[in-house]
Design goal:
Elements (H helix, E strand, L loop, with lengths): L4 H5 L10 H13 L12 H8 L3 H13 L3 E4 L5 E4 L7 H10 L2 H25 L2 H16 L3 H18 L3 H18 L15 H19 L8 E5 L5 E2 H7 L6 H9 L3 E3 L2 E2 L6 E2 L4 E6 L5 E8 L2
Parallel strand pairs: 3-9
Antiparallel strand pairs: 1-2, 4-7, 5-6, 5-8, 8-9
């Protein structure tokens, strides 16, 4: 029989004022997201209460509510205890009630948190992910595509984002992502109602966030060019412009000497080719796609205007 201690370790403690309904919400969300497996045994009440930062009495009250909701069951005897009963699909009505009770400010804060936590995790994972982590992510993508129920799709999507955080090799970001998923994941998969407007499944904020995430992965993990590269026009002091001088004029570097150093270290590309000469000439009338840096990349389309 699986032991719930590892899954419980992913649930952050409640505030000191934690109440039974807060425990119910946290545990039920963890069950729905797949952090607990069906049939998994929870830790002893004293250990579980200590980890959540609540009293044993509060935990017992919460477990009683969870039993009424059919999410856990208590078995007697030598091999008894409290065990998870995971439903195949979330309770959509309860989710809509929770969503409707949230203020616009709270929803905005939640999406801000998603942008900060998930974005940072994706950026670090793009640079640090191991081969094993990439395989796990691909497996979760397949699980999401094959998900036959709302619950299975929520779990696969949530596990994917948590796995991205694990791939970032940041323990703090992983804990923050787990906490974020317990608050947000189910809302993102709520089926649209007849009154939904616009009819598209994604609202503008979520669509923009997903586009930004896709663009980030495309640029940082696939070495592609961003869609919104700024265009800069500079006026040459003579018949041509030297590369190091042009980088400074385009505000891609703080100084010409820094530009020379980056070029000599192989940190500058012009039209997809690595630049090696700081004095390379940029001819007037042409546009050059320039990339500076390898990790914190900066792009510009530089057009040189002759004097």
């Amino acid at each position: 029989m699986a032991d719930g201690r590892h899954a419980v370790s992913l649930i952050s403690p409640l505030a000191a004022t934690g109440r039974a309904d807060e425990v119910v919400t946290r545990v039920s969300q963890a069950i729905q997201l797949g952090l607990f497996m069906d049939g998994e045994q929870l830790p002893p009440e004293t250990d579980f209460a200590a980890q959540l930062g609540v009293s044993a009495m509060t935990l017992r009250e919460a477990l009683a509510i969870l039993r009424q909701q059919g999410l856990v069951e208590t078995r007697r005897g030598r091999t008894g205890g409290t065990f998870i009963r995971r439903p195949t699909t979330p309770q959509v009505g309860l989710l809509r009630d929770r969503l409707g009770a949230m203020t616009t400010s709270a929803l905005r804060d939640l999406t801000d948190e998603q942008f900060a936590v998930s974005g940072a995790a994706a950026k670090l994972a793009a640079a640090r992910a191991s081969t094993v982590s990439v395989r796990r992510l691909l497996t979760l993508v397949d699980q999401l595509s094959a998900g036959a129920t709302l619950g299975s799709r929520i779990r696969a999507d949530s596990r994917f984002h948590i796995e991205v955080a694990i791939a970032s090799q940041s323990e703090r970001l992983t804990m923050l992502e787990v906490a974020l998923q317990t608050k947000l994941a189910e809302f993102l998969w709520l089926p649209p109602t007849a009154a939904s407007f616009p009819p598209e499944p994604l609202d503008p904020v979520t669509a923009a966030a997903e586009h930004a995430a896709t663009e980030f992965v495309r640029v940082y993990s696939k070495d592609a060019v961003p869609e919104d590269v700024p265009s800069v026009e500079i006026v040459a002091a003579g018949p041509v412009a030297e590369l190091a001088w042009a980088l400074k004029q385009a505000n891609l570097v703080p100084s010409t000497s820094e530009a020379r150093r980056l070029v000599e270290q192989g940190g500058v590309e012009v039209d997809g080719a690595r630049a090696t000469d700081p004095k390379a000439r940029l001819e007037p009338g042409r546009e050059y796609l320039v990339r500076v840096g390898s990790k914190n990349r900066r792009f510009a389309r530089i057009r040189v205007k002759g004097t």
